[in-house]
Amino acid sequence: MYKSFLRPLLFSFDPEKVHHFTFRSIKILNKIPFVSASLRSQFCRDNEALHKDLFGLKFKNPVGLAAGFDKDAKLFNELSNYGFGFIEIGTVTPKPQDGNPKKRLFRLKKDSALINRMGFNNGGVELAVERLKHKSKNLKKQGIIIGGNIGKNKVTPNENAVEDYMICFKALHNYVDYFVVNVSSPNTPNLRALQDKEPLTALLNTLKTENTNFDTPKPILLKIAPDLTDEQLIDIIDIVSDTNIDGVIATNTTISREGLEDENRTEVGGLSGKPLTHRSTEVIRFLSKKSNKAFPIIGVGGIHSAEDALEKIEAGADLVQLYTGFIYEGPKLIKRINKALLP
Questions:
Q1: What is the pLDDT of residues 92-134, one digit of tens each?
Q2: Taking Cα atoms as reference points, which of 259, 256, 304 lies closest to residue 283?
């Protein structure tokens, strides 16, 4: 029904407007009695064979929702009904910001892809905290893990970036299960410069030190770009070892436009979807092999089928995340991946 009817209908309208319309619709739908229970019955699988213990957390299944979809923690309760084992909110910044001028989200239907130049549009970390305080009992009962993806405000110069990440880290600490440090979005000017070894090591060490001030330290992961060279990926392995953070998310969107056919291919921004499938898997395999599986990896980028997910797991990913594949394939994709992972 989704791919034959709903998707063609939704894809006939502006993608950002459709995103907000879909959020409102899901919110309203789940307020109808028995709808949430019906969705969970249809999409959620509870099988011990799918459970995954990683960096001190117990994941009900290894399929998560990547950051960028529920930026402001508006819909994580409702989205848990579609079978995700974990949901990552954000990217959130200390202060609210509008992001880049519209139009800033583009479908590439011929390539099964998206280009976005959103620019960390969000309502600020305090608004996200207020919403996270209202986790439903069902969410806790299902054991859904919530991640917090954090970034810096556009107006904050890189030399002060650590302060922005610290503000978000402290504010969210009691309300998320793990953190993701996002220094790899191509849509905030100069943000990717923070991936360089010296500033990134300083940032992660500062967060690690702050983490020890809490009774229950939270896992800290780093999200990296797919456009890093092999030399830069070796640096990432060294940084993870030196800072002793808990893992890596590979990968964010790409600035590459290789092999695209859609007329929107010239739009500026980060590319996600099927064109990223091979490169993100390459990065996962490189990190896993060169580090000798020294740290957990969450694989994301171009997962549009169960086979795509299995390929990333075989390459070295411990968990996987969906974003563009979820939009193109619908919620049944989560169920298909989990089914394929069963013995």
A1: 999 999 999 999 999 999 999 999 999 999 999 999 999 999 8
A2: 256
How far is C-alpha 179 from the geometric centre of its chain's CA atoms? 11
206 labelled as ligand-binding?
no
Prior bond of 103 cis (ω within 30°): yes
Look at domain 2-341 and name its CATH class. Answer: alpha beta
317 annotated ligand-binding residue: no
What is the value of pTM for the model shown?
0.96
- Positive/negative CA dihedral, 128, 131, 133, 138: negative
100 marked among binding-site residues: no
Catalytic option among 36, 185, 280, 291 = 185
CA 87, 289, 85 angle in degrees (round to 5)?
Answer: 15
- pLDDT, tens only, 133-181: 988 766 777 789 999 999 999 999 999 999 999 999 999 999 999 999 9
Q: Any catalytic annotation for residue 36?
A: no
